[in-house]
Please model this.
Amino acid sequence: MNKPKILIVEDEEAILEMIALNLHNNNFKPLRAINAEIAEQSLNTNKPDLIILDWMLPGMSGIDFLKRIRLSNSSSKIPVIMLTAKDQENDKVLGLDYGADDYLSKPFSPKELIARIKAILRRNSPGLINEKIIYGRLIINVENYVVTYKDNLIKLGPTEFKLLHILSANNQRVMTRERIVEKIWSNESEVDFRTVDVHIKRLRATLRDYGITSSIETIRGAGYKISEAKHFE
Ligand code: CA
Model:
């Protein structure tokens, strides 16, 4: 299993190294850049899974670099967490407007940064982080594709497993059929949205066999979301 690659763009060496060390200790592969130019090269050669971007950089600013990232086809979908010494609400809004996925003001705790990174990767790239998802008494072990409920093994097909994983990783966020198709069948061209409905139906039926009567909710005109955790107790 490859470690997720995180590109850190930060000119202050002490902060750069502090972040790199924490990433390393949490099973990520840190990539370092001290300005936008070096970061751009790293983007092309290393294809990072997420970018931590400082606002104040020598040369091109973090916000200008963020605009570039979002305009380029190859990097437009890479999640970005902005770092800044400024904690003004305006800057936060500006950063999020330009497509930052999250925002941290300095000084921040490394623990908080790691939590934010995991939350974003969990949403954007389920499967990239090897971990257990615990939802009520349901445990989804991503590494070995094992799901248990109240210590009983639940047998799921590969597609149902991915569905359950995506929905639980997104913890009550509604997932559209488009998004589900993109996540599960990204490499296949034509997957009918009804295919999603069929697999949802199967997943619900299996979970019902184990006593989970309300597992996945249909949100009319939008998509699906996992039921509240209390239904999995
Ligand atoms: Ca800086």
In short: Residues 193-209 form the longest helix (17 residues). The pocket of calcium ion is lined by residues 11-12, 54, 56-57 (CB under 6 Å).
